[in-house]
Amino acid sequence: MDDKRPVDLGTAMFIPYRYTEDRIFRALQDAGFSDWTLAQCRVFQRVSPDGSRLTDLAGEAQMSKQSAGVLVDQLERLGYVRRVPDPKDGRARLIVIEPRGRQAVKVAMATLDEILSEWKAHLGARNFTLLGEILGQLREITDPYAR
C-alpha cells in the first residue's frame, strides 16, 4: 500500500473491526476454544442472549439460510449452541447459547474490554466518547439490524 495515499473512510472503519475480530479469535483459541472456525464465530456472535432464529442469523451474517444452518449444526455439535422450540411459535426453533458458549462469550467480552481500554487510552476519553457517538449516529442510517 502507498503510505502517502490516505486510506478511504470505509477501510479506516474496517481496520479496527478486523483487528478486534482477530484479537478476540486468538484470545478464544488461547483460552481453549480452538475447535471452531472464524466463520462459525461470526455466526455465533450474532446469537441473541434470548435466542435467535436461523433466518435472522443468516440475514445478519449476510449468508444464505443453508450456509448459516451448516455453521449452526457445527456449533451445536461442538457444544456452543443448541436448538430449542420457540416459545412464541411452536413451529419455529431458536438457537440458544449453551454453557460452553457462555464461557467463550466471557473470554470474548473480557478481550473486548481490554481493546476498548487501550483505544480509550490512545485516543483520550473525549475523542473515544466522540468516536462512539459518531459511529452510533452512522449506525442509525446504515444498520438494518439496529434494535
Topology (SSEs and partners):
Blueprint: H1 9-30, H2 38-44, H3 54-61, H4 65-77, E1 81-86, E2 89-97, H5 99-123, H6 125-142
Antiparallel strand pairs: 1-2
**How many helical elements?**
6
Terminal Cα separation, in Å? 37 Å
Biggest β-sheet: count, sense, barrel?
Answer: 2 strands, antiparallel
SS-based class: mainly alpha
Please trace the helix and strand order, writing H or E for each element.
HHHHEEHH
Uncertain stretches = none
Q: What best-fitting shape do the alpha-carbon axes yield?
A: globular
Beta percentage is 5-15%
Structure description:
The chain is mostly helical and 147 residues long. The chain is built from 6 helices and 2 strands; from the N terminus they run ααααββαα. A two-stranded antiparallel sheet has the order 1-2. The longest helix has 25 residues, at 99-123.
Provide keyphrases for this structure.
147 residues; two-stranded antiparallel sheet; globular
Summed up, what is this model?
Helix content is 63%, strand content 10%. It has 147 residues and is mainly alpha-helical.
